Amino acid sequence: MAVPMPSKRRSLVVQTSMDAYTPPDTSSGSEDDGSVQGDSQGTPTSSQGSINMEHWISQAMHGSTTSTTSSSSTQSGGSGAAHRLADVLAQTHIENHSAPPDVTTYTSEHAVQVERPQGSTASRTAPKYGNAELMETGDGVPVSSRVSAKIQQLVNTLKRPKRPPLREFFVDDFEELLEVQQPDPNQPKPEGAQMLAMRGEQLGVVTNWPPSLEAALQRWGTISPKAPCLTTMDTNGKPLYILTYGKLWTRSMKVAYNILHKLGTKQEPMVRPGDRVALVFPNNDPAAFMVAFYGCLLAEVVPVPIEVPLTRKDAGSQQIGFLLGSCGVTVALTSDACHKGLPKSPTGEIPQFKGWPKLLWFVTESKHLSKPPRDWFPHIKDANNDTAYIEYKTCKDGSVLGVTVTRIALLTHCQALTQACGYTEAETIVNVLDFKKDVGLWHGILTSVMNMMHVISIPYSLMKVNPLSWIQKVCQYKAKVACVKSRDMHWALVAHRDQRDVNLSSLRMLIVADGANPWSISSCDAFLNVFQSKGLRQEVICPCASSPEALTVAIRRPTDDSNQPPGRGVLSMHGLTYGVIRVDSEEKLSVLTVQDVGLVMPGAIMCSVKPDGIPQLCRTDEIGELCVCAVATGTSYYGLSGMTKNTFEVFPMTSSGAPISEYPFIRTGLLGFVGPGGLVFVVGKMDGLMVVSGRRHNADDIVATALAVEPMKFVYRGRIAVFSVTVLHDDRIVIVAEQRPDSTEEDSFQWMSRVLQAIDSIHQVGVYCLALVPANTLPKTPLGGIHLSETKQLFLEGALHPCNVLLCPHTCVTNLPKPRQKQPEIGPASVMVGNLVSGKRIAQASGRDLGQIEDNDQARKFLFLSEVLQWRAQTTPDHVLYTLLNCRGTIANSLTCVQLHKRAEKIAVMLAERGHLQDGDHVALVYPPGIDLIAAFYGCLYAGCVPITVRPPHPQNIATTLPTVKMIVEVSRSACLMTTQLICKLLRSREAAAAVDVRTWPLILDTDDLPKKRPAQICKPSNPDTLAYLDFSVSTTGMLAGVKMSHAATSAFCRSIKLQCELYPSREVAICLDPYCGLGFVLWCLCSVYSGHQSILIPPSELETNPALWLLAVSQYKVRDTFCSYSVMELCTKGLGSQTESLKARGLDLSRVRTCVVVAEERPRIALTQSFSKLFKDLGLHPRAVSTSFGCRVNLAICLQGTSGPDPTTVYVDMRALRHDRVRLVERGSPHSLPLMESGKILPGVRIIIANPETKGPLGDSHLGEIWVHSAHNASGYFTIYGDESLQSDHFNSRLSFGDTQTIWARTGYLGFLRRTELTDANGERHDALYVVGALDEAMELRGMRYHPIDIETSVIRAHKSVTECAVFTWTNLLVVVVELDGSEQEALDLVPLVTNVVLEEHYLIVGVVVVVDIGVIPINSRGEKQRMHLRDGFLADQLDPIYVAYNM
Fold first, then answer.
1. Cβ(697)–Cβ(684) under 8 Å?
2. Can you tell me the distance from the alpha carbon of 961 to that of 956, in angstroms, rounded to the nearest whole number?
3. How far is the C-alpha of 252 from the C-alpha of 254, rounded, in Å?
4. Which of 311, 721, 1073, 1175 has its CA 20 to 30 A from that of 967?
5. How far apart are CA 920 and CA 930, in angstroms?
6. Confidence at residue 397, expressed as pLDDT on a 0 to 100 scale
7. Beta strands in 41-195 (DSSP E)
């Protein structure tokens, strides 16, 4: 059976599921069951649970969990922080069982089920949570029980491929399971007792509190209309406008009247009570916002405050549009100035922003509104459960949700804040925060009105100009309260230059809105340090914690007691990563110092639950997600019932599974714990949580560490974003920072290496990627912060454009599969037995037997091609053998049998007379593709010389192409060089002299003027085994190899192709190939003479000026068989992709083509052949017609799709198995599948076997091995001047080490496998398909496994649209990836993380070096194959002139 594939879920679950940690437990009860602890709620005695806990934690347990009256030392607001347990239990509806549940018989009233994994057989009962039934799958992952059968079936199918592989006969080692992080045996575990819900003081209703917020506005607007409500500032810090309570009341009434009565018609008003409207006001106009907000409350419509959309593509603006659409918003209220500033179309219309619904923009300035009639009055009711407003919230993934707040929640929240902060009438409060949401809205717009306070609003634009402005306003107005964020305190410190007149003694409360952030404590301390001398008292600083869902979660109360120091916790960072609280000392670096955010809000209950899974109460020394139960919270995510249920309707449970309250709690999204004296500590946010190999890290902590490394000197304005991306089934930490404009490359790398070290030593976690971007380029939130999800999105899309990037996959990625250990080799006997036992056959196959084919092949009776030509010249002198086309598609030249014969005779005379050549001398033919080349070849045969075809040098590129020509001429020991007059001049030109030594050329004959006479006799070779010609080619690894082709092999080759393609004189074949080596040369020069068919020759270089030339010729000559190269196919696919319609109009018809064969020496490029077939299907090309051939140096054509026989098949193999030299078939689309196309049919007279390249033993069907070939047209050896005989005998005369040890095989140097298909061959046998995987020389051995460069390159090219080409090679055990960039140079660095990610994900390999180069740097040979070794040499010699080189750490 197949082991299930390691899916993402599996590898994550192993880390967290109970079975991974808990040993099988057979005792009658374990601690968690409650059976040991006496009380199922657990009231631990001091000896239990806190033996090794630090002092303040243990105090916390005693203080808040014993049932004696332990009143807390921090008496605040008249009520003790820790209530008596009895109270808590009574008030929070916790049922208290005095007897422990009876575990043995399960008959207690709660039927507590003990979950005890015994091995894997324990039957589990799924816990019920809320009202959702949970079911656990085999992996231990809860799934909803209502999964449709169809989906379940699909999941199962994907899990096990339909065709499970046969079991191997020895260790099956290709199951590359990713390493799963084993839990650290020394990891800290929580040891405290179960925590108890913490209740805030009672909300004391004061008699004169208004019944609703609108009632408060009405009261102050009528009894003290002159009282100031809000003062706004201009950018110079001068008061711009004072809004009084009277004006606020009358204007918001006016807005309410106009919204309800002046939009739409009387019969069809646009807005009715309960409808949602958007509030779009800039940050410098709180007065207009306030009027509009209260206008909505009075009209009973629901305001949705959002940011001003500045451009059509603001960061996150699209998501806000989505929120408005889902809330059904059709009207947007805005101010005059804002309306004028919005982008407009030429007609003056405000365009619809991307993703936004169609809106009516309504300006709320008084002068634009009509006065309500005297008798009209808003309906003011007591606060009820209707929605008061919707506050937007941006999630981790960038989506925007709307949190609905009811009118009763709104009022209760104002009351709770009033009580907690001790607000009194007419106090002055300075607000620096955004007044549209969160703390700024709650204090500066809502609670202030309830208490008739005066708000001084400081806009963000003023803070940018003058960071001290808020402190100056506190002094100027003697403000009692200020609402700020840590950054406002930080910038004030930076800007503070010992101002004389600063006096902060009037402040009784400085609310720090982000007091829950890990870096706020240092801002608070530093601020106090500097301003204590200016009258600031320590107890004035009041950090608070809040969340959009739970509103204010906790706030430190202002006290008059300066002796009471605030709560501090110095926690071990290591402990926190496991969610455990361990107190440490401040001297250490790896600690997190947190400050308390005060007590639970009045009228609320708080507890902390485990962050994932079932909401179980945490222990006292465990970090959990804080949950709150109160009236003053949000009630839902607008329109999203499922998400609402998970967040707003949580029922925390005790360890025994009983809910602690019948009322639902709300998840705050904050991680923390309740410390001693009921003080709340927050250590991070759920949104910022990154789980790296089982340990939890908080993004904010990592930002704090990065900022602490030379703060502000290098990072521009402290702008750092930290997020995680999932690569290879685990979170990887990415840090993106803006660097200062003046920083140098040296600065940035120094800073980066310091940050890496700091994070490693403090957090013990590796950073996967560190990217630096230019100042001010990260997407911003409306108030200037970094838009995190948008930044992450840009990073993943490769659109971040960093100016520096450092990846450290080597240190971070620890879950790679173990390197493969090679198995000790198995002896021949065990392989035989193994094959028999597992019912597998030895992988071998053959084409049709040449001896048994009866055909009227007249050419068979001649041993030599030169004789065949003479016979054709006599019997069919005027039959056209060759037609050469020019770039316009017209015939440039043609040759009949007799013309070719006569021309060859003249060349033979020339060789004898001018060249004085002997029988057997070598002649280099340097011709462009055409007729001259063919004539020169047969001239050599007639003269008894051995021809070598050589590609002529490229006139525009002599420096690189001429040395190759020279090398072939020298290595082949050519005595003479024949060419045209033009090339003759080129070889002796000054450019040529600069590239090579032109004096050492052999004799050069130009065949443009030939002698007129015939030779005395035509040479007839003495023996069929003598040399006919030499075939030279440069392999992809950059080796120049010439092979010897005998006369016998040449004739056998031509016969094999004639039979496979059914060629005879009435046929026409179109050939668009380079005629210099391999099958291309044989088809261009030899086959027509042997078979008598007409070859229509199309030089591939002509396609560069006219890409349609080849296909038009095929159509015009009604050709049935055509041959091309991959370069030609690619040229047609890219060049004609958009022209199929016009080609159809020109009458291009490919319906007669029955075979279109790509001539290649590589794995079939399936993507290219498929896109070619798809593209030209409309022009009649049958997809079945397109196929490939396969040849190599030892045998120029092994496979070639003929005319008869089954269509080429495609299989999907598991790429991971392939790395272990195994072939495992999988279904299409399954993970890690690789499509492979059969390389055409095996030619007649060819036998193939798959052998182990190391041991030379035959292999079974399911193994990847070297393709060995035995055939009459094998080449007879390498032609070298070095005479390396051992290589020769090994490649051309190999024998198997066991089995059939007699046959002599040639080794192709290519890895592949055979597979017997269900199809039948022409001769009725079952058809054996050969699949070529790749060259042995090119394959890279990494981590003990075999990788084929093309697979990695395919993945990389898919990674980003700007990667046009890619090549990989190894260098000192490092994988080097070279990518060609089609785009601006600023995109170069975007590619580095994407390339690294995709290679890790798909190939489990770490990229060592990423080199980004310009288009055309990767060298490609004439067959369209990449020359990776040339590239490697260029890289090592530093000749690539790269745009960027990234060395991954």
1. no
2. 9
3. 5
4. 1073
5. 25
6. 86
7. 75-76, 79-80, 134-136, 142-144
